């Protein structure tokens, strides 16, 4: 019976998530895009903080980053660098995005693009390209969830069944409560993840070194396996060019799910206050990377390195702590899968199908909720069951596509001369290059495919824009003559 406690604790988390998420939508009409899509812009700074933070650190916190540390070594630290940069982007762009949404009714990233460039076609195209990265991320998280259930059940729940269970649970409260479900479950998940990561990391350091200093781990690596401490890493596949360009492509990525999460804040002031503290949360990655380094010696021949932390927990840790790690990892996976499924359904309905078929806002709002089921059943589930690559590599591929939207977003905030023709040409060219260099001629010269795509994208955007007519003066005035909102009572001070 004792050996089943970790699985019981892990499974109990699924029940808690359903209860929290289902109750989050009470009192709101979830058939409207405003309520289901943006949570009626009703979430305070603490919920927004944990919503964005927990959505940013996910299955790779407990699985991907220990797995990379185990296989490659210090290349895993790229994630710590790029998350800090993402926090800067959230701090700068988040309140501006929120203000545009409040004034002009934008919810999705693509709706703002369509408005600024006066092109519903461009909005739909950007929604589709961005969804590729979002779906890749959702696949990553779903695989992570399935791994957890498989390991914690000692193989009784196969990976394919874990995929179906996880998606079924998410569908219940995501359909019922939309962004509010994501916000309130992520608040719980985020707190759980932070506590569990440090408990597990410090326990592992103490158990395997006899103290709470990580120094002996690195001293042993320096003496016995120094290749883990420098680029290109132990596998020799993470050179300076790819490591640096992976950070850059992540920096230039503003996810659809993050954009929509920003829209859920009560105010721009509260949002800016929340994202100011994001880097503090991202410290959660450090102890789990320590676990991966420990696994280099303790589990040198593990079949799936993404499972090194979970395997170490099941084999060595007290059953309650192992169970909490299982619950925390499951929480990490689900907290990032939910917003990407939600964002994809929302943008497909609002930015692609609504203008294509001239749907009413009410119909588009209802359709958004139902679209989560085919997205889960026909896209995420089959790809997740196939387990196409390591968790972190799936993430890196996704970033290549997300980053292709950055030049368009720069045109919203910085360059009035950007035109819809230039934007369509740039996005299309960048997308094609990213596809070719991700799957056929993989990362030429060790530079991430998305960087190549981004360079071509910018070139086409600039040339195409200078050769064509800009947006109307009325549209440009709306976007470039924004006065920030005044602080709302009760939203001054600290988080």
Question: In words, what does this structure look like?
Answer:
It holds the Pfam family SSF. InterPro entries: Na/Glc_symporter_sf (IPR038377), Na/solute_symporter (IPR001734), Sodium:Solute_Symporter (IPR050277). One of its GO terms (cellular component) is plasma membrane. The chain is mainly alpha-helical. The chain has a single domain, classed as Sodium/glucose cotransporter, CATH 1.20.1730. 74% of the residues lie in helices and 0% in strands. It is built from 22 helices and no strands. The chain has helices at 5-23, 33-38, 45-56, 59-71, 78-104, 109-117, 120-152, 159-209, 215-224, 240-251, 256-263, 268-276, 278-281, 285-298, 308-316, 319-357, 361-386, 391-402, 406-413, 420-439, 449-466, 473-480. The longest helix has 51 residues, at 159-209. The protein is globular, with a radius of gyration of 22 Å. The mean pLDDT is 91.
